[in-house]
Amino acid sequence: MSEALELIGQATPEQIEGWKKKHGKIYGIIVDGHIAYLKKPDRKTLGYASTVGAKDPIKFNEVVLANCFVGGSEAVKTDDELFFGASAKLVDIIQVKEAELVNF
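Given the sequence above, the corresponding structure tokens read:
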């Protein structure tokens, strides 16, 4: 992200540090000049998102975005074009560790 570029919803470094202290890792999703800051989703959020997403896949993204949003441009949640752009990146914040199965 360029220092000279001012994004709609851009947080100060102090705000980002505060979110990191409270939530751990913080992600920024930039869409068409807007930025949304998100925390990593927890099991409760992903469980609920999966349940509602089974009937309506868009609801999965709505739940994850709403529950992980810590700051930035509210338009990313409300404007359809911005929402769909951000939705394409939500899968990147859901990190899964690789496990190994051992047979004894």
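Residues 26-91 form one domain. Try to locate this feature in the token string yourself.
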